[in-house]
Fold this sequence. Notes:
Layout: H1 4-15, E1 25-33, E2 43-47, H2 60-70, E3 76-85, H3 97-106, E4 113-119, E5 122-127, H4 128-131
Parallel strand pairs: 3-4
Antiparallel strand pairs: 1-2, 1-3, 4-5
Bound molecules: tetrahydrodeoxyuridine.
Amino acid sequence: MTDYRTLISEAMKARENAYAPYSGFYVGAALLAAFEKDGKPLIFTGCNVENAAFTPTNCAERTAFFKGISEGVRAFRAIAIVGGKQGAVTDYTAPCGVCRQVMMEFCNPDTFEVIAAVSEDDYKVFKLKELMPEGFGPDNL
Ligand code: THU
C-alpha cells in the first residue's frame, strides 16, 4: 500500500489550494483508491471550499471523495487529512460528522483508515469504525 508519508504529503499540497477566507482554517485531504491505475497508486486530493453564505462550504475530505466518485471510483482504502490556521500545521484534524457519514457510504468501516496528520512523521491512524461507532451505512438498509 502507498505509505502514509506519501498520502500526507499529497494532503499538504492540496491544503495550499484551500479556499477558507471566512474561517481561516485551511484543510487538505488525500484519498487513496482501493485499486491502482496503470500500476500507480490512485489518489484523489481535496481542499475545503468555503462560501459567503457559509452553508454551501465543502470540506476537504468530501471534495476528495466527490472527485473520486465522479471519476468512477467507488472503493477506497485510506484518507490523510491535514488542517490548521494559516502556516504550518500544529495539531491533528479529525473529519467532521458529515464527512464521516460520506465515508460510511463508500468505505468498509472495519478496514478504511483515517490518517489525521501534523506532518509526515507525526500522525494518528484510526479505523472508520472507531470514528463512527454504531454508524449507519448502506448495509443497514
Ligand atoms: N473542515 C474541513 O475541510 N475538514 C475537516 O475535517 C474539518 C473542517 C473545514 C470546513 C471549514 O471550511 C473549515 O474547515 C472550518 O470548519
